[in-house]
Amino acid sequence: MDPAGTPLGKMLLEEITPVVMVLRTPSVEEACVKNGLSFVEMLSPFCNFSNIDVPLRTSSDQPYRLHKFKLRLFYESDVRQPNIEVAKERLKQVITKAGEKENLELISDPPQVSNLLDSSKSELLPSWFEYLNKELIRTASFSEHETFDHPVGCLLVVSSKDEQPINRFIDHFNTNKLPSLLNDGAMDPKILKHYLLVHDNHDGSSEKASKILSEMKSTFGTNECHLLCINSSQDAKMEHQDDPWASYKYDGSPVQRLGCCLDVDDISALKDLMHEFSSKHVIPYMEQKVRILNQQVSATRRGFRNQIKNLWWRKGKDDPNEMPSGSMYTFSSIESQIRVLGDHAFMLHDYELALANYRLISTDYKLDKAWKRYAGVQEMMALAYFLLDQSRKEAEYCMENAFNTYLKLGSSGQQNATRCGLWWIEMLKTRDQYKEAASVYFRICSEELLHSAVMLEQASYCYLFSKPPMLYKYGFHLVLSGDRYRKTDQIKHAIRTYRSALSVYRETTWSYIRDHVHFHIGQWYALLGFHDVAVRHMLQVLACSHQSKATQELFLRDFLQIFQGAGKTFEVPGLQLPVIDISSLKVVFEDQRTYASSLAASVRESLWRSLEEDLIPSLPGARTNWLDVQTKLMPKRLRESNVCVAGEAIKVVVEFKNPLQVPIPISNVSLICELSRSEEEISDTNASTSELANDEDHQRVVSSDSGSVILSEFDFSLGGGEKKLVELTVTPKLEGTLKLVGVRWKFSGCVGFYTFESILLVKKIARGKRKAKAKQSPLNDLKFVVIKPVPKLEGHIRSFPEKAYAGHIQPLILELKNQSNCSIKNLKMKISHPRFLSIGNKEVPHVDFRACLEKQSDNKQGGTRANLKKASQGVFLFPEDVAIKGDKPLLWPLWLRAAVPENFLLYIIIYYEMEDASSVMKYRTLRLHYNLQVLPSLDVSFKISPCPSRLQEFLVRMDVVNKASSQSFQVSQLSTVGDNWGISRLQPIDGIIPSQSLTVGQAFSFFFMLKSRRLSSVDAATHVPDLSPDVDNDVILCPGSVKEPLVNATHSPLANFHDSERLQHGIHNQKDDNTVDFVLISRPLKSDTNSEEDSDQPQLFSHHACYCRTASTSPISWTMIGPRTKYHNFSSSFCEINLKMTIHNSSDAIASISISTADSAGQSDALPSQGGWKPVVKEIKAASPKAAGIIAGNSPESLSSLKPVASPVSSFIWSGSSSSNFQLGPRSSTDIPMQICVFSPGTYDLSSYVLNWNLRQDDGGCDQLEAKESNPEETRKLSGTCSGYPYFLTVLQSV
């Protein structure tokens, strides 16, 4: 690329060009003012030549042609260094006027980042940057150390109206009027002079002017004089299609049109004048001066000899003046001549000659420590390198060297440093080094805030144009710039830069800087009166949860002030205060499904569906409901909509959150809805809100103007960081189509609204069982088809407790209402946990709770076993004659039992049908849901061991532990379920629990005798006397002082709950002769019960144990039957005694049994006992008649107090066969005869035998037995060896 065609090249061709000083009389200005222009302004457009085509020959004999050329015209009063304060004020005016043009752009939205990256540089950069940079460069003009601003010629202008025009020409060059550069000796006063006579055609003909011109030529020379006639247009209405002065009037067009008195001939005369003056006077003069100076410099300074001579001379001098101004150099010094030669060659585009002379003089200035002149030469060397398109490294080195040197000079070099930096920046931009250019912008920022603001803004665009774009640095420097604009009261520029920064930070996670930008933009817009835009930006910082509390209060206070200053209400979409958690959105509506409470509506739909499967009737061929059929009858546009009933509310639960740490008031919260009865008629309605159980909130009900819906509005306040669920409702009154559009609220007069269409809805909508459908828009879940009113069942359980102890049984009442005049019928009910809730009998109401549970002595029970009509899967069918309508409720008894300690969730579904056959809905369901916290109470466990002396008798040990945290209990009753078992105590009542209650953490063990009431055939044949106490199904455990009636465990509700417990632990009604069920009845200690409760209402607890096994691990059990006492005269012979062993096989397999006897009673110690009680005494001999009398009395206490007496030989022998082998069928018994011979009186333990058994594996019985082994409670072996049970026989000497 041609360097002259770059932005820097164009700037250099405009700024580093020959200067012509203009000296004029007031009459000349008067003639020019008629055109709205000064004399210099009138000539300036014609001083820039794009193709002047003048041949030149400077240092070499090879000529070249000059094409582009420009003259800069200045009045003599302007040829001086600008005043710093005046220059700053001028720059401030430029920046302020640039901001005035930004009004329309300030109101528009900031651009997107993608648009920034796609836009061209010219579109993004403010247009006034270029003009401002030129003004900054010109602040360093007319320095004495630089000669390219020194005038090369002087244009003396006199009007034909002036008296004695020749004398006026002579007086023009009076030293009192000339600039200081000429008077101080900084520049050569011998410059080119050209004399111009201006004639105003409005003053008459040009004859006088012609005479004056002739006189001028005779005085100053023919070639140096010229006549210019202007204002040829008499009516001053001349319009120029191409206004040549437009670019020279930055302040805008004045009231008068520019050049209105200049016709075409005048403009041609102006062009010819400046072209002739440039090509025939200025350029030849400069060419001649360059050649002369070049010859002088070549003779004195070039060559090795001259360089050594100059270096030797400079080293021999004393230290030169180190003043920054460098006033030691005059225009006649060789250094100044070399600088003039370089500058003139540069302006004539001979850059090689210029660079050579700059190099030559650079060393001299450095040695002389003339740092300002040295920096100026380095600056020009860099520009020469750039225009020659030579070493970039050298160009950047020289430019940086110049820049740093200017900065070292302090305030005197600040303007020159700024100019040098701007040229350096343009050089880097030309080479696409935008990042490096931005750093230079940052370095030329001064302490002056406005100057710094402009530089930082231009630096930000360099970061944007870099490759790749550095967006964050772009935004950060814009913020720095905007902050400085604000400090200098340039509010519009501050807004502009902050808005541009917002394009970057709007989509980032840098929340703090984003809040800073929005907050200050809002403040500044409010200062300018744009309250609408100010409020919009302030709304973006309201939800600043990440900020400190003080910052949040500041944001909120300023927002309220700006809002009050606006004086009107704003509707703000997506208002972030409060924040709506759209993920919590839940829509609850009632079609065929209705809910008794909001708690029931919050249950997941899949759970309700599983309960409804056996309630809702199915259509032929598919499991479906009425809604699928109904959908086919709907119009196509409504098939994807939900269905609701007119007059029934639709609830929308939304969570509002206050992101701030300060409280905020929210009012008029409501839904936004659309209700239409046809496609053509659509009416907008507002929905209502209701807060979930907040006593401080204020609720009111209003109606829409159309009366088509019933609405409610809700006001509430949110504390710092508080979340609140708000239940918004809308109740349509007419049939049609209802659409939920969004939600609106009011915050401090600002109306915020949130539309559901703007988000992707996370569906948490309670929906019924539908067929699988094609994927549809989430917005269809917010559209409803409103049908005509149908009956709706309302219900609840009265006084349902929140907490209860485990086992507690309570009576409840289910209350059902139908407010409609249309009756409902065919009611059905299903309960999720029958273990906890049982349905009572309507015919036997539990008004008298005690009478329902007491067991009457005459067997006439106060309650009967539940005989309710049930369908499959536990569905309860209400009587067919039950119909509900009007104000009369249906009351139905229920029983609640807290079965196990847990947080219990109860679900109930009631199905009902419409009596009106014309109703769109044929049936509906009512869903009820309750929570119950069950606390621990008594923990009960049982251990059963068989009795060794009797079949079908067992010892029961019951362990009870009070695991409650604060409640004491009284154990009242233990019952066996069914008629197969009887139970009796082994301990006296008063000795069971001395304190009569179980306190917290206390444990007790109870012992009972359990007997089967199924009398075996062996027992019936032998008529064995029953030594066990009387047995019954119930045992009272409380002492006699506590008078509590027996509880009937075989009737409702205990029987129902026990059936549920059996279902929980096994198969319902499973018949197993070896298992027994227990029910323990307890009551809380009256002193621990709540004093406010009714003392007449009994507190009853039931604890159920199911499938407690009575059989041991061995399937073979036996007992020895025979006499316990025998009298015999041993003097005559030994005593033979006949015995019988009854053996029972409780398994389902054939058992092979072997019995082996041993004469020595001590041998039985070697075998372990596998069941029954341990032996107390093995062998006792009668030592005296007293002892014999005690033994004959059969006192167990006496027997246990005697000690065994060892015998060296066996006192008895088994006289039968020593081993018996036989097979025993499944679940059968047999008798084995046995005999012993006793040789002396005494008490003998007949346990000296071993029983071996083995179950056969050749039939299915063992397979069934092996299957039972999977249950740890029923584990049995297939073979085993058992020692004999203790059997004590007392033989006495007869008299």
Kindly list the characteristics that best describe this protein:
eight-stranded antiparallel sheet; alpha+beta; 35 helices; 27% strand; 13-stranded mixed sheet; TPR-like_helical_dom_sf
Structural commentary:
This protein is an alpha+beta fold and 1295 residues long. The strands form 10 sheets. Strands 10, 11, 13, 14, 15, 16, 17, 18, 19, 20, 21, 22 and 23 form a 13-stranded mixed sheet that branches. Strand 31 and strand 32 (923-935) form a beta hairpin. Helix 15 packs antiparallel against helix 16. Residues 807-926 form the TPPC8 second Ig-like domain. Residues 1118-1248 form the TPPC8 C-terminal Ig-like domain. This is Trafficking protein particle complex subunit 8.
Structural class: alpha+beta
**Alpha-carbon distance between the two ends:** 152 Å
Gross geometry:
elongated
Helix content: 25-40%
Largest sheet: 13 strands, mixed
**SS strand fraction:** 25-35%
Pfam families: Ig_TPPC8_1st, Ig_TPPC8_2nd, Ig_TPPC8_C, TRAPPC-Trs85
GO cellular component, one term: TRAPPIII protein complex
Domain TPPC8 second Ig-like: 807-926
Protein name: Trafficking protein particle complex subunit 8
What's this entry about, in short?
By secondary structure, the chain is α+β, with helices and mostly antiparallel strands. It is built from 35 helices and 52 strands.
Helix/strand layout:
Elements: H1 7-15, E1 19-24, H2 26-33, H3 39-43, E2 48-49, E3 54-56, E4 64-66, E5 69-70, E6 72-75, H4 84-100, H5 103-107, H6 113-118, H7 121-124, H8 128-138, E7 151-159, H9 165-172, H10 180-183, E8 192-200, H11 207-220, E9 225-230, H12 264-300, H13 304-316, H14 334-347, H15 351-367, H16 371-388, H17 392-408, H18 414-430, H19 434-443, H20 449-465, H21 471-487, H22 491-505, H23 511-528, H24 531-538, H25 549-566, E10 571-573, E11 579-588, E12 593-595, H26 598-601, H27 605-612, H28 626-633, E13 642-645, E14 650-657, E15 664-676, E16 682-686, E17 688-691, E18 698-703, E19 709-718, E20 723-732, E21 736-747, E22 750-755, E23 783-787, E24 793-797, E25 803-805, E26 808-818, E27 824-831, E28 837-839, H29 849-853, E29 875-877, E30 890-897, E31 903-914, E32 923-935, E33 938-946, E34 953-962, E35 969-976, E36 981-985, H30 989-992, E37 1003-1012, H31 1017-1022, E38 1034-1036, H32 1054-1065, E39 1075-1084, E40 1100-1109, E41 1116-1121, E42 1125-1128, E43 1135-1145, E44 1151-1157, E45 1179-1180, H33 1185-1192, H34 1196-1201, E46 1212-1214, ...
Helix pairs in contact: 4-8, 8-18, 12-14, 14-15, 15-16, 16-17, 16-18, 17-18, 18-19, 19-20, 20-21, 21-22, 22-23, 23-24, 23-25, 24-25
InterPro entries: Ig_TPPC8_1st, Ig_TPPC8_2nd, Ig_TPPC8_C, TPR-like_helical_dom_sf, TRAPP_III_complex_Trs85
Protein name: Trafficking protein particle complex subunit 8
Pfam family, one: Ig_TPPC8_2nd
